[in-house]
Amino acid sequence: MLTTARVDLVPFEVERDLGALHAMFSDPEWARGGYMTPAATEEESREWLEREFGDNGGWTWVLRVRPEQEAAGVIGVFSDQGTSVRGISWYLRRTSWGAGLMSEVARVVVDHLLRQPSISAIEAWIDSRNVRSIAVARHAGLDLVGRLPRTNPGEIAQSVVMGRAARPADPTTFGFSPVLSVRDLDETVRLLCSLLGLHVRFQLGDLAYLGCTTWNGQSGLEVRRVSGPVAPTTMTVDVGVLVDAVYDAAVAAGLGESTAPEDMPWSRRTFTLVLPEGHRLTVSGPLRA
Ligand SMILES: CC(C)(COP(=O)(O)OP(=O)(O)OC[C@H]1O[C@@H](n2cnc3c(N)ncnc32)[C@H](O)[C@@H]1OP(=O)(O)O)[C@@H](O)C(=O)NCCC(=O)NCCS
Questions:
Q1: Whose CA is nearest to atom 16 of ligand 1?
Q2: Which of 244, 250, 238 is nearest to 283 (CA)?
Q3: Ligand 1 centre distance from Cα of residue 180 (Å)
Q4: Which of 37, 116, 173, 281 is the most exposed place for a label (fewest CB within 10 A)?
Q5: Binding site membership of 151 for ligand 1 (Cβ less than 6 Å)
């Protein structure tokens, strides 16, 4: 058992804890707060717990807020996916929100997990709008390490990936900047910015450097002006929006050679954006909701 200032963390037992956790998982307002779908039946709650924590080597704890004996929530790592970077999730019943309980618990649990020899890092995938959960992750020492598209019922959203390594180290390589050679630099930059939401980080003579966001320090794209023939390049661009709207805008901009969007077996929807000078950008985004 682990303990924090106010909470006992007791190893999860499905038959003992299912009732209390189902009361939480089936609360529609609770689920809305986490941008999730509530469980309709106790069986669904059982499947939820089995799917997330079923094969995780026992690293699931229920929270008992002293002196209560009933589970107020649950925290655990995902079922073993054969990697030393382990995903974590945390769930607390709505009546206990906002008192700092999960922040207190997550810190203790993450510190404990990172002391295990088989775990090199902990990561949490959190809906970008779930500011409470992002704050919990920060309290547990996790930082923003990435972003992924996410398909929810009825909407496309984004997950932020928060992570903390047992032994933090600066990466050797932290980005790629592919080069696109073009004759018409200004028109290519205009098209890429308007279709893909890119930002001009700087433009100097025959070079424009485009970033995904207005922030510096991330991967980008170098667009270089050349005078001779252009060798068409192929590259993939990950987007966090439905690609259909990007495809429609590309066709409206006169890029009629672009191919129509298709669902791929690796759970992405893609189309090929063909630029005026023949470069082919595979635009890869979330599946439709
Ligand atoms: C996410 C969750 C576990 C947080 O638990 P909690 O005990 O309420 O969290 P804390 O009280 O420790 O608060 C976390 C942060 O949220 C902030 N917060 C509290 N109430 C808030 C509100 N109404 N709006 C925005 N932020 C709020 C707190 O200020 C705190 O940040 P700070 O300490 O930096 O100020 C809980 O809200 C929950 O179970 N949500 C539904 C399930 C879920 O989303 N799980 C995570 C899936 S990734």
A1: 132
A2: 238
A3: 44
A4: 173
A5: no
Fold observed for domain 179-285 = 2,3-Dihydroxybiphenyl 1,2-Dioxygenase; domain 1 (3.10.180)
74 CB less than 6 Å from ligand 1? no
Q: Is the CA virtual torsion 10, 12, 15, 20 positive or negative?
A: positive
Q: How far is the CA of 167 from the centre of ligand 1 (A)?
A: 27
CB-based contact 38:27 (threshold 8 Å): yes
Query: What is the location of CATH 3.40.630.30 in the chain?
Result: 2-165
Residues of the chain with CATH 3.10.180.10: 179-285
Query: For 2-165, CATH number?
Result: 3.40.630.30
Please report, in tens digits, the pLDDT of each residue of the chain (289 residues total). 999 999 999 999 999 999 999 999 999 999 999 999 999 999 999 999 999 999 888 899 999 999 999 999 999 999 888 899 999 999 999 999 999 999 999 999 999 999 999 999 999 999 999 999 999 999 999 999 999 999 988 899 999 999 999 999 999 998 899 999 999 999 999 999 999 999 999 999 999 999 999 998 888 999 999 999 999 999 999 999 999 999 999 999 999 999 999 999 999 999 999 999 999 999 999 999 8
Test site for ligand 1: of 61, 132, 138, 144, most ligand atoms within 8 A of the Cβ: 132
Please, where are the H alpha helices in the chain?
Answer: 14-25, 28-33, 42-53, 101-114, 131-139, 185-196, 243-252
